[in-house]
Amino acid sequence: ETGVTQTPRHLVMGMTNKKSLKCEQHLGHNAMYWYKQSAKKPLELMFVYNFKEQTENNSVPSRFSPECPNSSHLFLHLHTLQPEDSALYLCASSQERASGSDEQFFGPGTRLTVL
Amino acid sequence: GQNIDQPTEMTATEGAIVQINCTYQTSGFNGLFWYQQHAGEAPTFLSYNVLDGLEEKGRFSSFLSRSKGYSYLLLKELQMKDSASYLCAVQDSNYQLIWGAGTKLIIKP
Lengths: 115, 109
Fold this sequence. Notes:
The complex is a heterodimer. In chain A, the strands form two sheets. In chain A, strands 2, 4, 5, 6, 9, 10 and 11 form a seven-stranded mixed beta sheet that branches. Chain A has strands at 4-7, 10-13, 18-25, 31-37, 44-50, 53-57, 64-70, 73-79, 87-94, 105-106, 110-114. Chain A starts with a strand and ends with a strand. In chain A, 0% of the residues lie in helices and 56% in strands. Chain A is globular and about 40 Å long. By secondary structure, chain B is mainly beta. In chain B, strands 2, 4, 5, 9, 10 and 11 form a six-stranded mixed beta sheet that branches. A five-stranded antiparallel beta sheet of chain B has the order 1-3-8-7-6, with no helix packed on it. The A-B interface holds A 2, 4, 40-43, 45, 56, 90, 97-101, 103-109 and B 4, 8, 30-31, 33, 41-45, 48, 50, 87, 89, 91, 94-102.
């Protein structure tokens, strides 16, 4: 148990569906991250929130929409996805953004399949 | 561009020693991380190096040479549970983590 939980663990959706991924951290951290992990590719940073403010959006398509209502919760809203968006979506948290040796704690991920 | 290179896959024998290399080219450097990821699970933190040299933590050690843009993770007395992917990540000048694609380590009896 890493202190970061994600739901659902698995999600299958059609290209016209709208769904949301949820992440919750119980570590008292101030920074939260969304990553995309595809097979045999490096982790791709999607969004970063620091103290509930979005600090980075790494050219992510608008069909992915993040929401951070407080420093413990992070959502990723999905709509009109493409089959190439199928991947493992990982949430992570750290004490703060940009703080040297702070490790990131990861959730177990949501395995997303877009049909 | 920024780049992290590590071998795709390595095989080693239970009880042996294995060294997983990572080379990097990044815009600035604010430390290098190693994470372990078992199949279907979350990555978990193993080590952090920001100064040159060797950091030892039990059976695992991590080495850094900033002048060579090079690090390695050394695993001793390999156990079957060490079968996993090992991810190298470098923190650039903006403190953004740049990740390698990971090295899948297979341990054979």
